[in-house]
Amino acid sequence: MVRSRLGVITGMMLLMGGCAQQPVNPVTQESDAFKPVIRCHDDVEPEGRVQLEMVDTLISRDKPYAALAQLQKDHQSNQEYWQRYGELLAKTGDMDRALTVFTRMRDQCDSGEAYHGLGMIDLKNGNLTDSLDAFRKAVDRLPASASVRNDYGYALLLEGDYKKAKLHLRTALELENGTGAARQNLAVAYLLDGDNKGLAFLKKTYSFSDKELAYARSLADQLRR
């Protein structure tokens, strides 16, 4: 049930440079030999930034397979690259390798990006308790990340902790200047918590439309089941 609900809301959400020495080719190697080379403090080189911008453009156009192929052209060792790599592996259904990426990031770097990725994988696999723990650690490390706050807030909705969910989703909304996935998720949180003042705030401050509200009601109804 968690997995199907995730597809409904996080479908709206949502989820790096420096060349690695002897980089692994994730396409040709077996999964048990997939060992990403991740260096926690590597910066993104200018040519690497160009590659990542191309990847982000493909992601924004909902082309995850093409985005992953673009990443596989030239491997980098920094966390920005591998964060995208892990997210795209998950989006294209390769959960085992996605888990490998974020586990190695966690073990080597103990970063918010790593815990965010692990939280998303746990959530997609229906492991709500583990996902909440991972998201909590991600928020501790990346308190100003709108995507981390949004995903944690969504997991809290599934947990039924609507008040805490509202806090994180409101933070995400403000960090995104009223745009992004948190806009819809926050409306769902207000509906589930019976917070009419919150809904009025969305309408007044962020011009939340009747059409958006109707969709939020349908999502809230699904979460109540």
Main attributes of the structure:
68% helix; mainly alpha; disordered N terminus; 225 residues; 12 helices
Description of the structure:
The chain has 225 residues and is mainly alpha-helical. 68% of the residues lie in helices and 0% in strands. The chain has 12 helices and no strands. It has helices at residues 2-9, 46-60, 64-73, 79-91, 95-109, 112-124, 128-141, 146-159, 162-175, 181-192, 196-206, 210-224. It is globular and about 50 Å long.
Measured between the Cα atoms of the first and last residue, the distance is 9 Å
Shape: globular
Q: Report strand %.
A: under 5%
Instruction: Point out poorly predicted stretches.
Output: 1-31
Largest sheet: none
Which structural class best describes the helix and strand composition?
mainly alpha
In N-to-C order, the SSE pattern is HHHHHHHHHHHH
What oligomerization state is this entry in?
A: single chain
Secondary structure tally, helices: 12
- Fraction of residues in helices? 55-70%
How large is the radius of gyration? 18 Å
Q: How many strand elements? A: 0
- Please state the average pLDDT score: 88
Give the secondary structure arrangement, pairings included:
Blueprint: H1 2-9, H2 46-60, H3 64-73, H4 79-91, H5 95-109, H6 112-124, H7 128-141, H8 146-159, H9 162-175, H10 181-192, H11 196-206, H12 210-224
Helix pairs in contact: 2-3, 3-4, 4-5, 4-6, 5-6, 6-7, 6-8, 7-8, 8-9, 8-10, 9-10, 10-11, 10-12
